[in-house]
Amino acid sequence: MKFLDQCKIYIKSGAGGVGCMSFRREKCVEFGGPDGGNGGAGGHVMIEAVEGLNTLIDYRYKQHFKASRGMHGMGGNRTGAKGDDIILSVPVGTQIFDENNDIMLADLTEVGQTVLMLEGGHPGRGNASFKTSVNQAPRQITEGGPAEEMWVWMQLKLMADTGLVGLPNAGKSTFLSAASRAKPKIADYPFTTLKPQLGVVYVDKKEFVVADIPGLIKGAHEGHGLGDRFLGHVERCATILHVIDATGEDIAEAYTTIRKELEQYGEGLADKKEIIALNKIDALDEELVEMLSHELKQVTKSPIMPISGVSGQGVDQLLRALLSNVEDVRQLEKAQKDKDALSSVEKVSEEKWSPV
């Protein structure tokens, strides 16, 4: 399945049905009276987050979605049928933006979460609904409500616990394949990974999700290379695993290059918990690994863990450290949500019982 994390679509709700003007015509009934029914309501346009999807590719070749309009009212006090709603299914983690792609309209972060994007037009009234004791034969009806339409952008930000960052060919995909059952493409040339990959990691009878994004290069925050487009997938991660090639020429410069890109990109990426994985140590001796670790400690205070994605050396210890970070961050997030919920309840209570 091809990966698509951004698309623009056109949506339109259904217009309401027109009310009917009709009078009862029946033999031997001199004053039949009005019997024009109301129109039907127009269909809504909704977007729902569902499980089992991890791409927006369904909206690559079809960008226009229109709900059906309500049926017109009919004689005999028959109400028109309601227009069918349209429910667009998207992956969990999809954000909805306006036409200019600068105002967020919705953020779908849970399975089953649904947002009403456009409301269908209200139904028109038939002349039977205007009958009163004074006006026994009204000749008045109303049109149905108009349809609403708009263009929206949909952007997918993967829901992962850990995000892998690093220069191209640092061994991120190799680590992902060693730590999970994911099978990303692995080769000895830069930008082997062209789209984000997800892997579920199991450690100590617990699991968490790891996201591998294309390698970053200098100037990535300005759109250079491939990383800028996919950095958004790391925004939701609880922790970052910074993979560095231990066989590289200057590992300190490799680290600072990526850190600068994270800082320039913003969105709190530089403030997330970080673990540094000094990869490919199977090609070095222990003395050289210690020297490289000491070199990295001069430019960062983050924990440094030597590993080998090929041989699996140090991978289990690294996964346990990542799991610990993920659990700590998620507990803090849950505590903050509980605190915010309690504050909102207290605020409502104060407003309810405050003296007038």
Describe this protein's structure.
It is a single chain. The protein has 356 residues and is of the alpha/beta class. It folds into two domains: 156 residues, Spo0b-associated Gtp-binding Protein, Chain: A (Distorted Sandwich); 173 residues, Rossmann fold. It is 22% helix and 22% strand. The protein has a six-stranded mixed β-sheet, sandwiched between helices. The chain starts with 5 loop residues before the first strand and ends with a helix.
Named at the architecture level, the CATH assignment of the largest domain is: 3-Layer(aba) Sandwich
Q: Please give the radius of gyration in angstroms.
A: 29 Å
The overall number of domains is 2
Can you give the helix content as a percent range?
10-25%
Under CATH, the homologous superfamily of the largest domain reads P-loop containing nucleotide triphosphate hydrolases
Query: What best-fitting shape do the alpha-carbon axes yield?
Result: elongated
Structure described in brief:
The chain is α/β, with parallel strands linked by helices and 356 residues long.
Characteristic key phrases:
single chain; 356 residues; alpha/beta; Spo0b-associated Gtp-binding Protein, Chain: A; Rossmann fold; five-stranded mixed β-sheet; elongated
Topology:
Blueprint: E1 6-12, E2 45-50, E3 64-66, E4 86-91, E5 94-97, E6 104-108, E7 114-118, E8 149-156, E9 162-165, H1 172-179, E10 197-203, E11 206-212, H2 227-230, E12 239-245, H3 251-265, E13 273-279, H4 286-297, E14 304-306, H5 315-353
